[in-house]
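Bench notes, afternoon.
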Amino acid sequence: MRKYKGKGDGHAPLPPADRKGFFLCAGATRGKRLFECPVLTVRYFFDAIDVEYAGEVCFRQIDEKGAIRRHPTALGDCKQAGMAFVSDVT
């Protein structure tokens, strides 16, 4: 992969290493291991593009359009995670 090549390889410089990413996810079922694969995939993707994995917020039983609005803690959880993410980045 290009991220492992040396600086003198004739390509543009690599992006700064201080980039961070956050994963938001919703799933229709309530399985205990529902988010293991998506989280792992996002972690590997972030690693490949030199983005530090800063966490995730995942919600189960979000089955139809608008269902997230009825979740008792979704808005608060996302707002809190977003505030923490932004304060860590700046």
